[in-house]
Amino acid sequence: MKVLSDSQKNLLMESIRDVPDFPKPGILFKDITTLLNNPQAYSLLMEHLASRYDSYELDYIAGIESRGFIFGAALAAKLGIGFVPVRKKGKLPSATIAEKYALEYGFDEVEIHIDAFNGKKGAKVLLIDDLIATGGTAAAAAKLIKDAEAECVEACFIINLKFLDGEAKLNELAPCYSVLEVV
Ligand code: AMP
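That is the input. Now the predicted structure with adenosine monophosphate docked in place:
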């Protein structure tokens, strides 16, 4: 189903556990492990994503470490296309390109393999992660896709923390789709 009904969205939202004060005081952590171990919710979500992206003629899915791997790899297998991991600095074994992004305090860095898209210029890539908050991580990942001469056709999130307006940071790089929104 390309479009989810309100009751299907509710089922997904209710399958995600809120954990207060994790990983630090004041953060309400959206825990998707309770969605993953709920077969009805997980398969509904994956069927929805597969039907949405079936017509996009994607070449690859790029998933952001680590929860983006779970959804991205499963979706890539469903669509019969390749999966590319976007990892934190120092984790990928071969030659990489890197992008720094600002955190509340300091910087972080994400990387992809330089040959991640097999040299296919203009490869159509869907970027995926579990959640968009400030948008810094996803914007850095979208820049990496561009630096690798591929095209980020959309960035997809299971949850968008709308009140942080991460989408604004991403929109100049790629359109954004979120299955669920927290306003
Ligand atoms: P940001 O770069 O601020 O958009 O943060 C997005 C990344 O941090 C994603 O990989 C999320 O998994 C994680 N993240 C940020 N805030 C939360 C939250 N409240 N609950 C769960 N994950 C979060």
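The chain has a mean pLDDT of 97.
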